[in-house]
Amino acid sequence: MASGTYEYQSDFVRKHRAAGRAEGKAEGRAEGKAEDVLMVLEARHRTVTEEQRQRILSCMDLSVLDRWLRKAVVLTSVDELFAD
Fold first, then answer.
1. CA 82, 77, 72, 30 torsion: positive or negative?
2. Where are the alpha helices (DSSP H) in 7-76?
3. What is the rounded CA–CA span in Å between residue 54 and residue 22?
4. What is the pTM (predicted TM-score) of this model?
5. What does pLDDT average to over the chain?
6. Using CA atoms in the order 58, 44, 76, 36, what is the torsion angle rounded to 10 degrees?
């Protein structure tokens, strides 16, 4: 029996499968952006605590991550990253 070749016919399954793919792509973009923030901080020789690292990596909000990435380029302390 060949696996992975069955195509679902139900609109319900197609809809939810597409939603799952979209959610997975969004999570992937957020993870990549979080890694970019950490890479910039590392390149600028900023010390990131484990708590800060986990906060950055757990963030799934792309607008917040974009803001943090812009801040990471100019900040003098990682604490500034989280200040509003």
1. negative
2. 11-43, 50-58, 62-72
3. 24
4. 0.70
5. 85
6. -30
Residues 17-27, mean pLDDT to the nearest whole number:
65
The whole-number average pLDDT for the span 58-64 is: 94
The helix/strand/coil state of 3 is: coil
Token reading at 71: 């801040």
Exposure of 65 by Cβ count < 10 A (0-12 exposed, 13-18 middle, 19+ buried)?
buried
Q: How many residues does the chain have?
A: 84
Q: How far apart are CA 64 and CA 30, in angstroms?
A: 10
Q: Is the CB of residue 56 less than 8 Å from the CB of residue 37?
A: yes
**CA nearest to 40, candidates 67, 63, 64, 74:** 74
45 φψ region: left (φ > 0), alpha (ψ -120 to 50), beta (else): left
Q: What's residue 28's pLDDT?
A: 75
